[in-house]
Amino acid sequence: MFRKFLYGLMFGAGFAVAVLAVFTGYMYLRFAIPFYWVGPEEVSSGDAVREVPEIKVRQRFLGSTGVTSGDFEHGSDAVLTAGPGEITGLATANGKPVADLRLRLALNGSVYSQWVVTDVRGEYRISVPYGEYRIDGYDLDHESANRVLTGLISHPGQYYGRATFLVAESEPGRGMSFRFVTPVTTHFDKRRFDAGESVTVRWDAYPGATQYRLQVAERADPDDWRSTYIFDFSDRPSVLDTEAELRSLGAALKPGYAYSVHVQALDENMRVLSETPHSFRDTDFEIAK
Q: Which fold has domain 186-287?
């Protein structure tokens, strides 16, 4: 009797161990390695959508976050140590101060300054050692630029300067002024036109603009970022209205090519107020073969 009891006890213990092992294996496959488990209750194609969803564009800064001159060492990651001197400057958007913009300057052809953040007045102050400086460009922090410069571009006439200046005791250096503006927004009736069909570009009237200057870039391959300008720099056409038919301006649009249109808003003195954002990736329309 005792022997049967012992055998029963051993069998029960073995069965319990087996059950425990199976349960442990199931939990491991179920949670630790979830891609091994495909249960019928978890297979789902998601909620059915009957209407075509609207294409949403992520709101961001539409200008370049980094510009350097040809003299600056490409790929340099050298950072100048802070010092007792200062380089100061200002950042504005449509004439108003821009706060919380994180930026740094490219200096003397080889180093970047420390990162700084603009204050509520749009001012920035960069601590540098005393010495002679030349500004060769700048960097904007992507995250802060997308947050505080949403939908804006750099002013087309923004100039960061190549003249040298001295930073000395009680003599701060004058850094570049960052200016940002609302871009010119263009509109097209469609994205694909037949060969020989009229192609009209329209744009929103820009505050203070008295005329608009156009340039058209063409690509033989829409997926190739390289473009060729149709109009010579000195022969870019200007119009007084907020629309233009491209063929009537002398644009020879070719079948099978893709095009983008660049519009500048000019004031009464022919100074550029703003322009359409530059894009090396997108095109505005294509001409059917």
A: Immunoglobulin-like (2.60.40)
| Residues contacting residue 5 through CB under 8 Å, at least 6 positions apart | none
For tokens 């359409």, the residue is 276
Q: What whole-number distance in Å separates Cα of residue 189 and Cα of residue 185?
A: 14
Pair 86, 127: CB distance under 8 Å: yes
- CATH class name, domain 66-181: mainly beta
Nearest to 145 by CA among 48, 250, 59: 59
- As a residue count, the chain comes to 289
What gap in Å lies between CA 193 and CA 285, rounded to an integer? 7
Kindly give the confidence (pLDDT) of every residue in the chain, 289 residues in length, as a single tens digit, with 9 standing for 90 and above: 444 444 444 445 454 444 445 455 555 444 444 444 445 555 556 788 888 888 776 789 999 999 998 889 988 899 999 999 999 999 999 999 999 999 999 999 999 999 999 999 999 999 999 999 999 999 999 999 999 999 999 999 888 777 899 999 989 999 999 999 999 999 999 999 999 899 999 999 999 999 999 999 999 988 887 889 999 999 999 999 999 999 999 999 999 999 999 999 999 999 999 999 987 678 999 999 9
